[in-house]
Every structure is written in structure tokens, then in C-alpha cells.
Amino acid sequence: MTSTGKKVLIVDDDPDITLALAAMLEDEGYDVTTIDRGEYLEQLPEQNMPDVILLDMLLSGVDGREIARRLKQQPATRHIPILMLSAHPNAAQEAEKAGADDFLAKPFELDELLNKVALHLHSSA
Amino acid sequence: MTTTSSNSSSSQKARKLKKHPSQTYIEESQNIILLLNRQGHITYASPALTQLMGYVPEELLGRALDSLAPRDESRILRIILKEVQPSPGRTLKAEVVLRCKDNTTRRFEGSLTNLLEVPGIEALLYTLSPVREGRLAPSTGWHNMGATDHFVQFYEHDDFLLHSLSGYVAAGLAANEGCIVIASAEHLRKLNELLQTQGWDIDAASKEGTYVTAEATEALSWFVKGEKLDEKRFSRIFGGLIEKTAINRPHVRVYGEMVALLWAEGKQTTAIQLEDCWNNLQHSICPFSLFCAYPIRSFQGDMHSPSFETICHQHSQVIPEESYTSLQSPDERLRAITHLQQQALSLWGEIAERKQAEEKLRISEVRYRRLFEASKDGILILHPHSGSITDANPAIAQLLGRSQEELIGQDIRQVLLSRESTKAETFLEELQQKRFLHYDSLFLPHPDGTPQYLECVCNLYKVDEHELIQCNIRDITERKQAEKALRKAEARLRFLAESMPQKVFIARPDGSIDYVNPQWYDFTGLPAEELLGWSWLQCLHPDDKEATLQSWLHALKSGEPLEIEHRFRRANGVYCWHISRAIPIRDDTGQITTWIGSTTDIDEQKQLEERKNAFISMASHELKTPVTSLKGFTQILQRRLGKNADSQTLMFLNRMDSQLKKLTALITDLLDISKIEIGKLSFHKEPLDLDTLVQETVQNVQEISSTHHIQLQGSTNARIYGDRDRLEQVLINLLTNAMKYSPHADTVIIRLDRQDNKARIAVQDFGIGIAPEHHHNIFDRFYRVIDSEEQTYPGLGIGLYITRTIIERHEGQLWLESQKDKGSTFYVTLPLYD
């Protein structure tokens, strides 16, 4: 798996989950950035766009679904694959409706996470 | 004097005789007048009979006179009869004792006269006057009916005249007397016929000169020119004829219609002259008896009264004076008796007719009687005026618990209306007025004490001029008691409906509401009319209307019970959740007659449930979050330590991971339960290859199992339409259960095949098994097999419940075959997708 240097943005308001996710992906050689509020996504630097976004659905502040919608509306971010995560029931359909490219239910298997991230990086490349 | 002064008698019906004034006298007489035939049988009785002896005249007709007397007195009557019967004109008087109807006896002075030879009467006349103290018996004797008698008869119908005439002539022929008949051609012809039918050889008698006839018009022409009568010619012709006929014969009888003919032609003077001529002839030549007949219609009105009287006066006296002292002339007396005889004859005719009618009646009576006897309804026949029972059928006897004989003669009011004094008082009066009465419910306990209700219909009607009352009576006790029970039950139900907290409704088979209990008014704040029919729909939440209507119409159409949850608007505008249930009520034929339903307020329950589900949903989310990070860290550690850590550390990490999986599964199950509860378990169905799905799932489950080998056998080769994740959940649940409950076995078999055009999956273990009594409940929520002897197995008791729900939502079936200690096989079938 050649993932070195690929930029992964993690948006989650639970610090432990963020920490675990980051560790998993960094162990695989990804360039990981974490933020805990969706609003920050609006100030993404144009020169440093992530290659994939892991987005929690139920965020404090602006909801993950709303963020996904906005990202998919903006030309600059439309192409970035969004992998939505949630522990909420029925979240898969909600994610699809909001425009997310994929969904991962919490709690998840490590392999499943890595597979999905790799899949989206590969297809968008 | 007047005779039949008003109507033309010819216009009257045959035999219906108009009452003659003198007849009226007889009918009003204080004496009983009887006419007897030659054998002494009564043919007529005057109305005084009723007053003096208690009989209705008709009762005595045809009875022998001596039967009226008590046994020891009847001999006297027989002696009198024997004395008088052979002697025309003979009268005998004697005091007699007669038996009245009420069996008392009464003493009369009787006077029997032989009028058998008098044409138009031909009867024995018996006059009975009650004996009073100190009364002197009349002493005047009867005139002997002599050889020169001159009879006159007034007749209304030819039949009557011919009957008299044939009797007159026949008696003459029988005594070898000469008979001369001067009559109209028609009368002659009829008379001859009549005599021949009586067995007389007319031709022989004519040849011998015993029977001489002449046509009246022709005979008149011999001595009458215009209105002028030649008495000499008359005397010569008829005197000669009579004298010639008298030779070698004891007597001569003459019948003449010439006077009547003249009278009818309007030649009254000539007619009276001819009468004189006849009288003169009687005195001048050999004795003969003369019979003249006059049609009464010729004497209508008062116009000819003097002439009529003249004729009457010319007749000889044959009727005893003292019998009818108030009738001045003997003619009146004669005519009075003649009329009686005419009436008597007509009466016989009527009786004959009646007998014929009675025969017919008897046949219909037999028929009626059978109905009467066989009728299930009780029938009573009553006397119209007294209300006493004259007939009763077996059914009524049974109904009233009394014999038919007991009932007859009883008063209906005591038999049937003993408990209904108001009805009893007005019974007859009302029936006479309306001719119909209907009592829909009479309370009359059976003599054995059991309560009994009767329905009674009474009709007053005429049969052959006789009124009678018929009462049809039916036992309606059962119906009445059923009604009573129904009313009681109804009252009970109404009380229940009105006192229970639930809203109750009753609907017609078409679904429209025709009753709502007061709870509906209280809740909706609307009056009944705004809830009945289909108006109640306005109280439903707009979102629930369509579903409610659909369910309701489906129930009405299919006859299946209704159960639906929906919101009704309270008077304050707030919608509250309710559950409505309704069941159909059917009649004996299975037809739905009505729907009964209840609507229960479940709003509080509903809210509580919603809060509970929201809580579970939130809790599962909150639980999953720490599990996610725990699992994440565990997996990072597994991976980082993978190559360098000792085997025990790795084993601990694996255990942590598998426990976390269990924890995740439990949380998922909990969440699913709450979703099922609120009906929000969602499915994402798509066409699937079932065999592949099973293979993948088996592989995944096998990976985490170190104790059992899962054997996959057969295939379904089926595509189905279903939710991949949910079906996977079912397979995982069945396989993990199989392993969990067969701790001492090492194999689980999963078999794929088809059955009845369905895909079938069987999961078989070789474990502890399930006793049959648990088979039914094992798929229920929170149900766990509790067995004190067995070791306990952890779990929430919701896995099979979720499994069943998922399979049902796929229109599939789930069942098990199992015996305790022999393992279990769970079967799932799913419909094919084509």
C-alpha cells in the first residue's frame, strides 16, 4: 500500500477517537491533520487541500451532514472524497443523502478503515 | 182490509214470503200455534213458543208432537192425534202438560183441528193457550167440514198453488171421488205432470171420467160474452158436468180459476157474479166441494178491497172462530193459517237448501276442524255476546293447562284476561266496535306456576249469518324472555359503555357510526351528530386519516378485526394518540350485523415509549463512542506490537478485541429492539445472490470462531430481494447461537436448499436442544429458557426476536425443530426474486 504523503483530514469532536484515527493512519504513512469543529473547514488553504476527509456525522456546532453538503457544493472541494463516520443508527443513508462518498459505522475495524481510505485515494487519484 | 199493501210480491225472491198482516197477528199471538203434518210432526211453530216454553221455533221443526210432553203425559197427545188425524174438520180439545226447554212443565189448553183436507193448509192445527186460574174453557165447537165446503186460497207462487191443488185432487182420486179442474193451460199441464210424478194414471182417470179438465179461458167463453155472464148456460154446463161426474161416485171436487181469470182481466163485477153462480150451484145440485185460488198480486192495493171482501164473504166458514177471536172474518183466519203453511213449506225448502249447504259446510268444516285441531296456535271460539267459550283446540288446552272440556262454557275474560281487569272490562264492547282486537302481550302464568306470555288476536265475524268470535293465541314467553334478557344485557352493556374510561363506538356493516358513548363528547367537545356517520373523521389528525380509512375499509371488506393507532383531536385542539380496535358481530348466517369498537387513549404511553426509544437510541450512540476509541486503541496496539510482543500479550489484546465485538453487538441489538418497537427498523432491499451472502457470512463467522467448524452444505441457486446487512445479521445470530448452545460439540451444519419454491437455510447444532414447551415462545422478546439444572448462558433474549422480525419483514418464515439434549435446527425460508 503506497500511501506516503497523502493528506488525510479528520473532523471529529471526540479527542480519543481523533487520536486513535490519527495514530492508525499515521502508522500507515499518511499525512494527518485533525480538527474538532466543522466550521474550520471553510478556511481550508487552497494550496494545501486534503486528499480525503474523514467526517464525523454528529458534530457539535455545524452538523457533519451540513458540512458535507457545503463541501460538495464548492468547486474547490467538490472532488475531495468524504468518508463519513457515525455511531448513529440509520447514519449510512443520511451520509449518502448529504453527499458523502462512503460511510463507516463506529465502532469500526482497523482494516476496514484503511481499506476504505486507500480505495478513495486510489479512485480520486 | 189490506193485503200485501206495499211491494209487489212477484218481485220478491221465491219462498221469501212477505209477512201478511194476519200472519203478523199470529206471530204476535199470546198462544202457541203449531202446524203438524199428517204424521203429527211439527212443521211450524209460532214465536210465542219462545216466551211460553223457552224453545226457539226452529228447534221443534220435524219433532213429533208427543215428544213435547213428559213421558207420562205424552199418551194423551197420541190419543188426541189418533182421534183427529183421520177426520177432516174434526176438533178435539184437552188440557195437556208440556215440557219446557228448562225441563219445567207447563199446563196448556190445547185445541187440535184437522185441516188436512183444506187446500193450501193440509195440516193439523194445534193451538195451545196457557191455562190460567179461573178461566172458563170455550165451548163453541168447530163446524164440521161439510160436503159443500168452498175453499179459497190466496197464493203468491204457482209452485205453492200447484202443491195445494195436487194434494186436493190426489185426495179426491184416492177416495174415488170425481175431480173437475178448470184451470189455465199451463196450470193444467203442470198439475198433470205433478200428479203423474206422484204415480196417478191421469189418462185412465180421464177416460173413466173420474178426472175432468177444462181450459179456463175456453170454459169462460162458453157462458161469458164481454162482461155479460149467462148464469143459465153456466148452470147447465157445469151443473150437468158435476152431476154426471157424481154418478157412482161418493163425492165431487171442483177446482176453478175462472173467477180469478175474470178478476185478473179487470172484470171484477163479472167475477163476483161468477162467485155467486158457484154458490148458487152448490145449493141447487148435488153437493160438491169447491176450491178457488187467487193470485195475491191481483188484489194489490186498496182499490179492490170492497170487491175482495165480497169474495171472501161468499166462502163458507171452515176455520174455528174462537182460535183467533180478534180476527173478525173467517177469511182472515183462513188466510192467516194459509200463510203459516206457506211459511212452513218455505221453511222446509230452506231447511232442504240449508241441508245441502250444510253438507258443503260439513266438508269445509272437516277441513277447518283439522286445521283447528292441528294448529300450533291456541284457538278459542266464543259466543259473540256472552264471551263464553264454545270451542277450544288442543293447543290452547295445552297452553292453559286445562282440558278442552274444562274450557268450554267458561268466560274468556276469566280464562285469558284474569290479570288484565281493564282489558277484561272492555273486551266485548271493543270487539263489537272494531271487530278486531290484538293483545301483543298478556301475562298469564301457567297453572304449574311458570310465567307465561301470550299474544292474542280476536276477530268477530259472521259465518252463515251467525256471528262468532275467534281468538288465536300464541305462546310468546320465549320471545318475551329473550327480549327481557336482551334489555337486561343492553342495560348492562350501556352502563359499561358509559362508565368505562374508553371511548366506545358501534358501527353499521357499511362502516358508518351509529353510536358513540359520552366519553367521545367529553373528549372531542362535539355533540353526537358531529361524530356519527362519518363525521368522526374530522377529529382525526390529517396525517392519520388516509391510513385509518384504509384500515377501516379493509376490515369492513374482509371482516377481520380492526386495530390501528391514530391521533384524535381533543376539545382543546391537541392531538392525542389512541388505539382503536373493532370486531364484527355476526348473525346466525354469518352476516355481519354490526361492528363494536373501542378507542383507548394511549397518548401518555406513546410519549413514554417515544422517550424511552429516544433514550435507547441516544444511549447506544453514547455507548458506541467510547467503544470506538477503545477498539481503535486496541487495534493500534495489536498492530504495533504484532511482531515483537510476547504471545500472551497478543492473546490479551485479541480477547479485548473480541469482547469489544460482543459489546458492539449487544449495543446494536438494543438499538434494533427500540427501532422495532417504534416501527423504525429500516431495510434497504436489493436483489441478492443468497448463496454468496451465506458463504461470505460463514467465512466471517468462522474466522472469529476457534471452537466450531461450520459445514456449509448444498446451495439454493436463488436470487432473493432483501437487505444484505440485516440478512447477514440473521445468519450471524443463528450461527453464533448454534455455537453458543453446543459447547461440547465441534460442528455446526448450515444447509441450503429449496422448498416449495422458496430458498431454505437450515442451521443445525448438536447441543443442548430446546424442550418443545419453549418452541413457541423462543422467538419472543426477552424470552429466555430458564432451566435450573442447566448452566446459564449469557444474553439479553432479544437475538431471535430481532431475527424473526427481520425474516418476517422479508415475507419469510422462521421455525425450529429441536429436542432437549439432541440439538436444534433453525429453518429460514425466503421468497425467490425473479
UniProtKB/TrEMBL annotation, chain A:
<dbReference type="InterPro" id="IPR001789">
    <property type="entry name" value="Sig_transdc_resp-reg_receiver"/>
</dbReference>
<dbReference type="GO" id="GO:0000160">
    <property type="term" value="P:phosphorelay signal transduction system"/>
</dbReference>
<dbReference type="InterPro" id="IPR011006">
    <property type="entry name" value="CheY-like_superfamily"/>
</dbReference>
<dbReference type="InterPro" id="IPR050595">
    <property type="entry name" value="Bact_response_regulator"/>
</dbReference>
<protein>
    <recommendedName>
        <fullName>Response regulatory domain-containing protein</fullName>
    </recommendedName>
</protein>
<feature type="domain" description="Response regulatory">
    <location>
        <begin position="7"/>
        <end position="121"/>
    </location>
</feature>
<feature type="modified residue" description="4-aspartylphosphate">
    <location>
        <position position="56"/>
    </location>
</feature>
<keyword id="KW-0597">Phosphoprotein</keyword>
<dbReference type="Pfam" id="PF00072">
    <property type="entry name" value="Response_reg"/>
</dbReference>
TrEMBL record, chain B:
<keyword id="KW-0418">Kinase</keyword>
<dbReference type="InterPro" id="IPR036097">
    <property type="entry name" value="HisK_dim/P_sf"/>
</dbReference>
<dbReference type="Pfam" id="PF08447">
    <property type="entry name" value="PAS_3"/>
</dbReference>
<feature type="domain" description="Histidine kinase">
    <location>
        <begin position="618"/>
        <end position="834"/>
    </location>
</feature>
<feature type="region of interest" description="Disordered">
    <location>
        <begin position="1"/>
        <end position="23"/>
    </location>
</feature>
<dbReference type="InterPro" id="IPR000014">
    <property type="entry name" value="PAS"/>
</dbReference>
<keyword id="KW-0808">Transferase</keyword>
<dbReference type="InterPro" id="IPR001610">
    <property type="entry name" value="PAC"/>
</dbReference>
<feature type="domain" description="PAS">
    <location>
        <begin position="489"/>
        <end position="559"/>
    </location>
</feature>
<dbReference type="InterPro" id="IPR005467">
    <property type="entry name" value="His_kinase_dom"/>
</dbReference>
<dbReference type="InterPro" id="IPR052162">
    <property type="entry name" value="Sensor_kinase/Photoreceptor"/>
</dbReference>
<feature type="compositionally biased region" description="Low complexity">
    <location>
        <begin position="1"/>
        <end position="11"/>
    </location>
</feature>
<dbReference type="GO" id="GO:0000155">
    <property type="term" value="F:phosphorelay sensor kinase activity"/>
</dbReference>
<dbReference type="InterPro" id="IPR025847">
    <property type="entry name" value="MEDS_domain"/>
</dbReference>
<dbReference type="InterPro" id="IPR036890">
    <property type="entry name" value="HATPase_C_sf"/>
</dbReference>
<dbReference type="InterPro" id="IPR000700">
    <property type="entry name" value="PAS-assoc_C"/>
</dbReference>
<feature type="domain" description="PAC">
    <location>
        <begin position="562"/>
        <end position="614"/>
    </location>
</feature>
<dbReference type="Pfam" id="PF13426">
    <property type="entry name" value="PAS_9"/>
</dbReference>
<keyword id="KW-0597">Phosphoprotein</keyword>
<dbReference type="InterPro" id="IPR013655">
    <property type="entry name" value="PAS_fold_3"/>
</dbReference>
<feature type="domain" description="PAS">
    <location>
        <begin position="26"/>
        <end position="87"/>
    </location>
</feature>
<dbReference type="InterPro" id="IPR003594">
    <property type="entry name" value="HATPase_dom"/>
</dbReference>
